[in-house]
Design brief:
The structure is a single chain. The protein is mainly beta and 137 residues long. It has a single domain (2-14, 28-129), classed as Beta Barrel (Lipocalin). The chain has helices at 2-13, 46-51; strands at 30-39, 42-45, 60-64, 69-74, 79-86, 90-93, 96-101, 104-110, 113-121. The protein has an 8-stranded antiparallel β-barrel. The longest helix has 12 residues, at 2-13. It is globular. The two termini are 27 Å apart.
Length: 137
Amino acid sequence: MKKIICVMAIMLFGISGLVACGKSDSKYTGIWKMEKISKDGSDYTLEEIKKLGDDGKYDGAFVIKEGGSAVVMDASGQNQELEWKETDKGISLGGKELEYEDNKLTIDAKKDETWYFQKVSDSQNVTDVSFDEEKEK
């Protein structure tokens, strides 16, 4: 499981030395959580993935903050601080491009696998992120 989490973090955010600036009125600032995965031509919600025995390895979220900083986290409590900036198609987060379309951010994470993130809150506070759906703010 840790290997999958590590691969997810590397794929999504890589290590980079970007200098970025966010905008205070950006539609991107706030909490984003993984909503679904498209794999081999089929879409799977997180609920479906968990029922298939995923055990939370796809549970991911990130907080986009004003000023160009972001925090990426997973359900195990691992956090990584990165920088972000707006691009023509969406955002660059830690050097990885995420496209914005239909109020979602997407990334081609692996061959034939796209991850979809939905904005769940305008909060920029990391402590507001919950991986328990009943406790989501």
